[in-house]
Amino acid sequence: METNLLSKIDHLFRNEYAKLISYLTSKFGVSNIDIIEDAVQDALLKAMQLWGFKDTPPNPSKWLYRVSYNKVIDSLRRQSKTLMFNPEIMNDYLEEDYEMDKSIEDNQLQMMFACCHPSISENDKIILSLKLLCGFSNNEIGRVIFKNSEAVKKGLSRAKNTFKRKVEKLSFPSEFELPSSLDTVLKIIYLLFTNGYTAYNGNDLLKKDVCEDALRLAGLLYVNERCNTPNLQALIALMCFKLSRFNARVSKDGFLIAMKNQERDLWDTDLIQLGNAFLILSNKEPSYSKYHLEAAIEREYATSASYDSIDWKTILEIYDVLVSKTKISILELNRLVVLSKVKGSKKALEELKLLDDKALLNNQHYYSIKGEFEKELKLDTYKETLQRAISLTTNEREKHFLRGKL
User: Fold this and answer.
1) 91 three-state secondary structure
2) Looking at CB atoms within 10 Å, which of 13, 49, 333, 385 has the fewest?
């Protein structure tokens, strides 16, 4: 089969997977999620088998829906399940209505909230979201969350069991529950984006489709007036600013490029402008979140004329507020990089040694940053520190980047 056809099918499947899973779950019930997943995946296999030998159907989305729907019906009949409705409703009206049905968007939103049910652990929420909302395989999920396929399999099984027991049907949270539920959904979207934007194990550095999926999910929330909050707008701004630099972060050979060496001509100005618009929109209320602060930092990077003209003092001031608000260790590390630009590497190294988080002693970014400070201060220990960072790194491309510092 031609490579471009495979790519086309894969792209279509990525776009339609969440729609199909959510739409069919709304019709057949949460308890049948495994049957629904099998049906959607079976539709993909049939598409790959058939479309390589005959023309792609005029409306591939409807074709996938029809095949998936019929497969679910067949599976339920074989298992002698009692349907909640007449299975003969599979008619032309539903087929024609599928692509334009407003409920499809609502179903995806409801599935987002269902994947973030409070009874599901944070790690399992990510696994379930990547599976049901992004269509990722177990291996792809493992690369994103730094877990082997066996751990992903167990987490997914655990999450699905809780999902089927606790989520009776797809629905929006009540007006009382919505704020806390929405906070959780935004957190998951943020983690999805961060995991796509950060290096993981193997040979790949970045996962652009993870970032784009996160932005797509945020877009679904944005067009729903109940979910369109300043925090969501700030998160979208943050993702736009960061995604605008995506193509400049990796060389043609697939190696990481530091910001100071990136070609700014490769930065996406449309995404920067979109980020600006969303950040302005998000600032119409006096309250602010970590997404506002992180977006403000990313805006400084994205809108500076050059690396040398970056306003490090302003960024440090924002980081001071952000770190005091969140107490997140990785943000504290990022703040110290900015601190070194403003007050020098000696001051930054002194504060680095004061960080009270034992988990950092097994974090490659901690040693990478520490080694960079030591190198700038011409301390003999920098090589040993960077070697420690390399030993803790599971990504071959990131190891290459760290070896370059040696």
Assistant:
1) coil
2) 49
Cα–Cα dist 295/235, whole Å: 7
Per the confidence metrics, is the pTM higher than 0.85?
A: no
SS3 277: helix
What is the 8-class DSSP label of residue 57?
A: P
User: Which of 237, 107, 117 has its CA nearest to residue 185?
Assistant: 117
Q: Buried b vs exposed e over 201-223: b needs ≥16 C-beta within 10 Å?
A: beeebbbebbbbbbbbbbebbbe
User: What is the Cα–Cα distance from 401 to 368, expressed in whole angstroms?
Assistant: 10
Each residue's pLDDT tens digit, 53-95: 677 778 888 888 889 999 998 888 887 655 454 444 444 434 4
Residue 351, both tokens: 């504060």
Q: How far apart are CA 402 and CA 246, in angstroms?
A: 20
Q: What is the pLDDT of residue 59?
A: 81
Nearest in space to 103 (alpha carbons), one of 186, 22, 16: 22
